[in-house]
User: What shape does this take?
Amino acid sequence: MSLSPYVPIVGLFALAALFALFSVAIAPFVGPRRYNRAKLDAYECGIEPTPQPIGGGRFPVKFYLTAMLFIVFDIEIIFLYPWAVSFNQLGVFGFIEMILFIGTVFVAYAYVWRRGGLDWD
Assistant: This one.
């Protein structure tokens, strides 16, 4: 077994790691250093920070439905890409399986839509 096909992948990972390390290491030297009280405070989306969450600490269900929708479609994309790459080898069986998978994802999407997860009044 030859490892030569994996050399470009390992090189890409090494290049990505070097870029990340370089970016983190050089940021304190090239970034601005004009700090003030507003920049050092915690950012709360324009709302003054409070010690207790507003409303007793409960989040609306829409936040969880949106997170669920993101996860469902993220997983769908992860499975769609390899399927599209090997579509010719899978044949009719792969096509039927993907139709069933997309139907299942559509059921989750319809559930979120019905529950009002897409309405941001």
